[in-house]
Write a structure and sequence with these properties.
The chain is of the alpha/beta class and 250 residues long. Helices cover 32% and strands 22% of the residues. Helix 2 packs antiparallel against helix 9.
Length: 250
Amino acid sequence: MNPSEHATSQYATTSGKLVNRMEILDFDTHTEHWYTWVRQRIPLKGDIIEVGAGTGQLWQGLQDANIRLILTDSSPAMCQHLRQIHAATVKECNVEELPFPDASFDVAVANHMLYHVDDPDKALQQLARVLRPGGTLIATLNGHDHIQQIHHIGKAIGRMSDIVKRARISAETMPSHMGNHLALVSAERAPGCFKITGPEPVIHYLNSWGGGTIDHDMIEKVKSMIESQITPDGTFTITKNMVLFTARRT
């Protein structure tokens, strides 16, 4: 199964798995929530497109911005969520075949979605194509050690991430892919880590991997592994390696 087929199996009819993964963001030690941190780095001007926009969390609460916002996703279920975003136009489409003319946008956003595409270079070529000269791409990806503690627990109970296994791009390889199509301006790793006080966020995250839910014995093992590593301040620390790339179309 290639990355896009896996994404379809995960997201075509439900947003539940994505929502389960997003819960961990609420336990970030950084003072700014992930979506706030990202949005502050997006030039809010002119015509903006976000590809693979998911549930549209990046745009929640945005008011009175003088922009034309286009939100796209290949999942019908995600597009249903996106239609609730104020003043946004929603288009169901694939980032590797964007149905927009050349030089249509001032800003393009690809937030944690490029690992779902079969051909990252083709996706980046499409994003470069629809940007106007001087336009900005904001893209985020995870590094290899992101949430490594959850991966360790998942391996122990036989619940591994198919997304990581199938991904054809990561934060480490993004600059080489991007350089073929756009001029890289900066790569900024988001501050902080995740600190949880109980096993539930990890259980929910593991439930988002694969089909079905983890069983009672697996849950008890997860609880035991986390409880054995709780620090004196009552928390379990999870590595955060989320990187935001800014690039320009020359």
